[in-house]
Amino acid sequence: MSIKNAFLEKLSLAQQNDAHLKVITEVLKIKPYKNFVFEKSLLYKDEDGTKLLVIPEKMEEEIIKLAHENGHFSVRKTKELVQREYWISGLEEKIKKIVSNCVPCILAERKSGKQEGFLNPIDKGDRPLQTYHVDHLGPLSQIKKGYKYIFAVIDAFTKFVWLYPTKTTNSEEVIRHLKDQQSIFGNPKTIISDRGAAFTSAKFEEYCAEEKIKLVHITTDVPRGNGQIERVNRTIVPLLTKLSLDDSEKWYKHLRKVQEALNSTYHRSIARSPSELFFGVTIRRTEDLKLKEMIEEEFVNQFIEDRQSLREEAKRKIEEIQIENCRTYNKKRKSSLKYQVGDLVAIKRTQFAPCSKLLPKFLGPYRVTNRTGIDRYEVEKIGNHEGPKNTTSSADQMKPFGAYDGEDGRDVGWKGIATRTRAAQARTSELRTN
């Protein structure tokens, strides 16, 4: 009772000091006005028979925050709670502004609605050995020889795969295997990798620079940027599991069989097996007899005559599949917000330890320092909070750190807290003038 009485006294005083509500109170002494009612020193609004306390402008934010922070509810739920006892003009827009600037909500909630960002296919070129996708798979069961990982290389055009058992994921082993390939096939023009330590090390970057290879790193936690290698990785584990049921520690002995199977299997995007497109022949196996050798010989002759047309057909097939994938993927997406250097954002948490389901889904604030590509950004940490000091992110893994613009219904990034504050003050001053 004491708390309620203190609140009502505070509300009554604030109503009396609010210029707009003071005018309404004076009018009510003369005649009725728009369902407003003045009783016991308090101004109410009669809504369908329910008397709601009219909240003066200075207390609006306090009342909305109390309702929202009771459970960090959505705009709709917060509105329902406020409307049970109080009346605030333009309530929904004011709730949106407060909820969109609530730091716990920014960091803890997932992004709603369609995911941002469209699929942007990488040009595969028009011939083999121009672009490699590379990655490590593992750790797997460690064996006596020390092998623990698989280094995978995929030719982007033909989908041909090379698999190497490795003891570590360091750049020395990566460079050694790439040099082995170089001695047979030469260097690619481009290598696409994730941001693993082996591929971001100074030694690997020096190697690529010396060999005049363009190195492209995909954005953190956006595996679709290296989609070809991701699909192969999902295939390798089941195959190795089935082949090494008797002794899982001998998985490396079956790696060549897996590589052979991948390269000899029909691939939808090129309408043939990788080995056929790469070499012009199917992979020869021990069970194949002379008849198959004759067929392969004929196929080689045809391939030599029609090599260019076959490669043009493969390029067309790849482009058709990319268009189809884009169409399907983009139906569930929307245009990304465009962030500028200096904007404050929250970035999606990409690493979860055990028993961490209750941790915030986003980290922040971070400041955008550079735009590195389509919907890709470099960001740096602002203040002392959890998360890496510098990292990369994509638009669909980011959201503005506040600054809701109620006029057009969009969330926009900050260009500094001071700028947002000045803009809010300017809008408030304009509303009061009007």
UniProtKB/TrEMBL annotation:
Name its GO BP terms in alphabetical order.
Answer: DNA integration
Residue intervals of the Integrase catalytic domain: 124-282
The record's annotation in SUPFAM superfamilies points to: Ribonuclease H-like
Has the keyword Cell cycle been applied to this entry?
no
Broad enzyme group: transferase
Reply yes or no: does the keyword Ligase apply: no
Q: Where is this region: Disordered?
A: 382-407
Q: Where would one find coiled-coil regions in this protein?
A: 300-327
- Record's keyword terms, sorted: Coiled coil
Q: Which Gene3D superfamilies match?
A: 1.10.340.70, Ribonuclease H-like superfamily/Ribonuclease H (3.30.420.10)
- Any Pfam family the entry gives: Integrase_H2C2
User: Which EC number(s) does UniProt give?
Assistant: 2.7.7.49
Which one of the record's GO molecular function terms can you name?
nucleic acid binding
What is this protein identified as? RNA-directed DNA polymerase
Species: Tenebrio molitor
